[in-house]
Amino acid sequence: MSVEAPEFIVLPGPDNGKPTIKEAARRKLSSPWAVFVVAIITILWTIPIVGLLVTSFRPSADAQNTGWWTFFRNPAVTFSNYAEVITGGTTMGTGIMPYFFNSFAIAIPAAIFPLILASMAAYAIAWVPFKGSIWIFFGIFALQVVPLQMALLPLLQMFNLGWSIGDIPIFPDLNKPGSQQSLLAGTYIPLWIAHTMFALPLAIFLLHNFMAQLPRDLMEAARVDGAGHFLIFRKIVLPLSIPAIASFAIFQFLWVWNDLLVAITFVGGTPNVAPITSYLATIKGSYGAQLHLITAGAFIAIIVPLIVFFSLQRFFVRGLLAGSVKG
Amino acid sequence: MDELLNGLPKLGSAAAAIALFLAVLLVLFLIGGRIRGKLQGPVAIAVFLGPAVILVTMGLIVPAGRTIYGSFLDADQKEFIGFDNYSWIFETQWGTLTNTILWIVITPIASTGLGLTLALLLDRMKRESVAKSLIFMPMAISFVGASIIWGLIYEYRPPTSDQVGLLSQIVMWFGVEELPNWILWQPFNNYLLMIIMIWIQVGFAMVVLSAAIKNISPDVVEAAELDGAAGWKLFSRVTIPMIRATLIVVLTTIMIAVLKIFDIVRTMTNGNFGTQVVANEMYAQSFVQFNQGHGNALAVVLFIGVIPLIIYNVIQLRKERAIR
C-alpha cells in the first residue's frame, strides 16, 4: 500500500520527464541481476536436499560408487532402500518405525504443554498488575540464554534420584525400592518435562510481546462488566492469541522433532522411547558407508517437518513475526 | 501393518497425557474463577504464573546453580578443587574455545547478512514466495538430517575414482587434481561445518527481516526519496535504522542457536580433526569421559560467554518498554 507522490510535485530539472526515483529504485532492485542472484541462491539452497532425495531412491551399488548427479544420465530407481529402513531388513533390527512413532508421541505433548503454560504466564505478566512483574519478565527473558547444557546433568539427576533441600523433598525419588531403575526410565515423561522447561522462556517472551499489544480498552471493558482474570483469559485473550500460540506450537513441534541433545541425554537410543533423530545419529555412526540407507532414513525423518512446514507456512511465518518484529 | 499397530499405544499415551494436563488446568480454572474480592488477583497470579515459574526454576535456575557449584568439584563431584577445572580448560582447550568463538561470530553475521541481502532483493520481486519457501525450507530440517545431507556433499573419494561428493566433483570440473579430504582439512573444515548452519539459518533471517522491511511506513520511505535518498543512501540511512531492532533480534537469536550447536559437530566429526566446540566437548566430558567437573566448567564458560548478550538485550528491552 505505497502512498504515491502527489502529481503536482515537479522534480528538479534533470529528473524532469524521467521516471521518479522510486520507480527507478524499484526497477533497479528487480533488475535481471537481482533475479539472477536470487535464482542462484535458491538453487544452491535446494540442491543438497535434491541430492538426498535422489540418493535415497538409487540402488545401493550406484549410490555408493557414483555421484547422485549421474542419476540423471543413468536413471535407476528402487524402493528397496525404504523397505529395508522401514522393516529393518536383515541387519537393522526394528527399523525406523518405532522411532518414528516415538517422535510423534514426544513432540505433540511437548509442543502443547509449554504453549498453554506460557500463554498463561504471558497473560499474567502483561495484564495482571502486580509489583515485580517487570523483573519476572526480564528474568525469564534472560533465562533464554542459559545454555541447555547447563541444565542437563542436574535435571537428569533429579529425574533419576529425586531432589530435596535438606530433608524436604522437592522432587520425589522415583526409584523402585531396591532397584537402580527410576520409574520414569523408559517413559516419555522426562522428555516432556524437559522440553517444556526449556521452551518456556522463549515462549513466554514471544507470547507476552503479542498479548501486550492487545487493545487495553477491551480488557477494561471486560473488567467493568465484572469479568475476572480467568474469564478474560479464556474468553478474550486466548481466542485473540490463537494465531501466535498456534504458530509457536508449530515451531516448538519442529524443534522437539528435530532435537537430538535432550533426547539422547534423557532416553538414549532404545526403540521404546527414543526419537527418530537418535536413530538417525546411530545409523549414521554404524551404517555411514551405506549412503542409500541413511539417506532413506533421513528422508523419512525430514518428511514430517517438511509437510508441517509447507502446509502451515503462512501460520508459521506470521507467528515468527508476531514476536520478533515490532512495528 | 504391524509397525502401525505397534505405534498406536504410543500415540495413545501421548493423548492421555494431554487429556490429563488439560483436565488439571480445567479444575484449576473452575476453582480460580469462583474466587471473588481481594484474593482474586493473588490467586490469578499464582495459577497463571505459578506453573511456569516453578518449571523454569526447577529446570533452569536451580540446575544452573548446581552446575556452577559442580564446576568447582572434581570429576566425581565429591571434592572441592577450586578453579582446577577452569585452568584445565584454559590450558588444554584453546582450540575448542577459538572454534566456538569463530562459530559465534561468523555464523550469525553471515546468516543475517545473506538473509538481509535476500530480503532486500526479494522485496519488490514477483513470485518471491517460491524462492522464500525454498530458502526457508532447511529451517524445518533437523541438524542430524542436515549433516547427512551435507555428508553427501563433503564425501571424499580418491581423485582417481568416481566422485560421490558434490563438492569434490565441482572442484574437479574446474580442473583441480589434488583434492583435500574436506572434513579432515584443518582448519577449513570448521568453515565447512559452519556453512551447514548458515544454510539452515539464512531462511529465518530472510523471512523476519523481509517482514520488517515491508513494515517500514511507506511515508518514511517516500519522504526520504523526496529528499533525494536512493540506493545505498536510502538503505544505510533509512532502511537499516528502521529495522535495527529486528536485526538485533535476528542476530541474537542465531547466536543463541549457535551456542547450543552440538548436533552438527557431533554427527559430522564428533569434534575430531580440530573442529571441537565447547558444547560438544561438554557433552563428551560429561557422558563419555564421565568427568562431570570438566563438563560443568565448560557449561559455565558457555554461560559466561553469553552474559554480555543478555545484558545488552535487557537494556534494549527496557528502552523499548520505556517508549511504550
Describe this protein's structure.
- The complex is a heterodimer of chains A (about 325) and B (about 325).
- Chain A has about 325 residues and is mainly alpha-helical.
- Chain A has 14 helices and 2 strands; from the N terminus they run H-H-H-H-H-H-H-E-E-H-H-H-H-H-H-H.
- Chain A has a two-stranded antiparallel ribbon.
- The relative contact order of chain A is 0.12.
- Mean pLDDT of chain A is about 80; it is low at about 1-20.
- Chain B has helices spanning about 1-35, 40-70, 85-90, 95-120, 130-135, 145-155, 165-175, 190-215, 220-225, 230-240, 245-260, 265-270, 280-290, 290-324.
- The longest helix of chain B is centred in the first third of the chain and has 33 residues, at about 1-35.
- Chain B contains 14 helices and no strands.
- Chain B is mainly alpha-helical.
- The chains are: A mainly alpha (about 325), B mainly alpha (about 325).
- Chains A and B meet through helix 1, helix 2, helix 5, helix 6 and helix 7 of A and helix 1, helix 2, helix 4, helix 5 and helix 6 of B.
Short recap of the structure:
Chain A has helices spanning 21-29, 32-56, 60-65, 80-87, 97-127, 133-143, 148-161, 189-211, 216-224, 229-258, 261-266, 276-286, 291-311, 313-324; strands at residues 163-165, 168-171. By secondary structure, chain A is an all-alpha fold.
Structural features:
heterodimer, A: 327 residues, mainly alpha, two-stranded antiparallel sheet, 2 strands, disordered N terminus, B: mainly alpha
Helical content of chain A (DSSP H or I, runs of 4+): 55-70%
Q: Over the alpha carbons, how many angstroms does the gyration radius of chain B reach? A: 25 Å
> With helices defined by DSSP (H or I, 4 residues minimum), what is the helix count of chain A?
14
Strand content of chain A: under 5%
Rounded to the nearest angstrom, the radius of gyration of chain A is 27 Å
Kindly name the structural category of chain B: mainly alpha
Strand numbers in spatial order across the main sheet of chain A: 1-2
Q: What percent of residues of chain B are in strands? A: under 5%
What's the β-strand tally of chain B?
0
Question: Average pLDDT of chain B, to the nearest integer?
Answer: 85
Distance from first to last alpha carbon of chain B: 58 Å
Number of helices of chain B: 14
Shape, per Cα inertia axes of chain A: globular
Taking all residues together, what is the mean pLDDT of chain A?
80
Written as H for each helix and E for each strand, in order along the chain, the element string of chain A is HHHHHHHEEHHHHHHH
Q: Give the chain pair forming the largest contact, with residue counts.
A: A-B, 133 and 133 residues
Cα-to-Cα separation, first versus last residue of chain A: 16 Å
Q: Which runs of chain B of at least 5 residues are low in confidence (pLDDT < 50)?
A: none
Number of strands of chain A: 2
